[in-house]
Amino acid sequence: MAETSGRRGIESCVKPQVAQLRPYSPGKPISEVQRELGLTDVIKLASNENPFGPAPRVVEAIRAALPELALYPDAGAVELRTKLAGQLGVTIDHLSMGNGSDELLQLIGYAVLDEGDELVIGDPTFARYEPQATLNRARAVKVPLRDMTHDVEALAAACGPRTKAIFLANPHNPAGTFNPDAEVEWLCDNVPEHVLVVLDEAYYEFVDQPDHGRSQAIALARPNVLILRTFSKVHALAALRVGYALARPELIRWIEQVREPFNVNSLAQVAALAALDDTEHVTMALAANASGRERLYAGCAQLGLRTVPSQANFVLIEVGEREAALYQGLLRRGVIVRGCTPLGFPGYLRITVGTPEQVERCLEALGAALGD
Ligand code: PMP
């Protein structure tokens, strides 16, 4: 009820910053496109998922864990953290697990951002960063990209006395570009000591450029740098939601402090454990991704479309005014991609690198849609 006769409606109990949040718009689900367009054969290249799915041993591990569903998960994900710590050469106190790295972003927000604080982010950047500022009554300070890449000098320059954190997606989503380690290190060396630098490395494994792979050393050498990684992408576990934070124990402690005890479910824990053993599957997925990217560049060039060189599992394609028409044209042909206007890059489509067959189908559909 509205405010009548001095009574306040239920909306007045919602915090103003919650009312300000805009809902996240995810990639269109396959089932929705099937239903709306009456199509049966639909592929989704819109959410940067792994087109090969998890390794068979991962599926087997999940199946074996099903009889245990009545029990709460291990609240500390100790077995998973122990194995991951062993592989990374750190201790379990350097790791905190999240319900996807999305949740870890939120936990960092809870732990560090407060009214009047500032969060420095790229513009555009991953859509889940700014809401963490809004939710905590902090302000997002947006730093324009340079050549579609994070401008580390401008990010450092944007830090002031109220800055609490920088969230840096590297590789960048939605651009797919990346900052080499030398730039990341420069940034970490040139922000005030009170600023937490969050290196969001959701697409870390897909990078095949030189000067990459030192971020862990960079983070662990500093008290104010934290890395986020995920099992959603190269390990193909997006449905189960599991990601991790890697930093010195003094930082990890604060995330543990605000984390719900059972935030990572049992199936996610056993699946991630098994995924850590599936190096062959990962190698296959990475090789397919690298050649899929090349095929998308070449296929788009043949269609007269410019692409942005990517270090992730998706490619940005410049389509200008035709963004909406091509998005719809692809949808009608059963190919779901992402129009980038809502992601901050009007005039672009973002296409996840699929299996070789999916890449061909997508290019074919794109060629046909250009002729509509
Ligand atoms: N960071 C970036 C840059 C992403 O693109 C994504 C997924 N789209 C995430 C974090 C979140 O990944 P998840 O919650 O699945 O681990």
Largest sheet: 7 strands, mixed
Tell me the number of helical segments per DSSP (H or I, 4 or more residues long): 14
Whole-angstrom Rg: 21 Å
- Low-confidence residue ranges: none
Descriptive report:
This protein has 372 residues and is of the alpha/beta class. It has 14 helices and 13 strands. A seven-stranded mixed beta sheet has the order 2-8-7-6-5-3-4, with helices on both faces. The chain binds 4'-deoxy-4'-aminopyridoxal-5'-phosphate (PMP). Residues 48, 100-102, 126, 169, 173, 200, 202, 230, 232, 238, 243 line the site of 4'-deoxy-4'-aminopyridoxal-5'-phosphate.
Keywords:
alpha/beta, 13 strands, binds 4'-deoxy-4'-aminopyridoxal-5'-phosphate, four-stranded antiparallel β-sheet, 372 residues
Structure, briefly:
This protein has helices spanning 16-20, 30-37, 56-65, 78-88, 100-112, 130-135, 152-157, 181-189, 215-220, 249-258, 266-275, 279-302, 323-332, 356-370, and strands at residues 43-44, 95-98, 118-123, 139-144, 163-169, 196-200, 225-230, 243-246, 306-308, 314-318, 335-336, 338-339, 348-352. It is α/β, with parallel strands linked by helices and 372 residues long. A hairpin with an 8-residue loop joins strand 12 (338-339) and strand 13 (348-352).
Blueprint (SSEs and pairs):
Layout: H1 16-20, H2 30-37, E1 43-44, H3 56-65, H4 78-88, E2 95-98, H5 100-112, E3 118-123, H6 130-135, E4 139-144, H7 152-157, E5 163-169, H8 181-189, E6 196-200, H9 215-220, E7 225-230, E8 243-246, H10 249-258, H11 266-275, H12 279-302, E9 306-308, E10 314-318, H13 323-332, E11 335-336, E12 338-339, E13 348-352, H14 356-370
Parallel strand pairs: 1-11, 3-4, 3-5, 5-6, 6-7
Antiparallel strand pairs: 2-8, 7-8, 9-10, 10-13, 12-13
The structure holds 4'-deoxy-4'-aminopyridoxal-5'-phosphate (PMP).
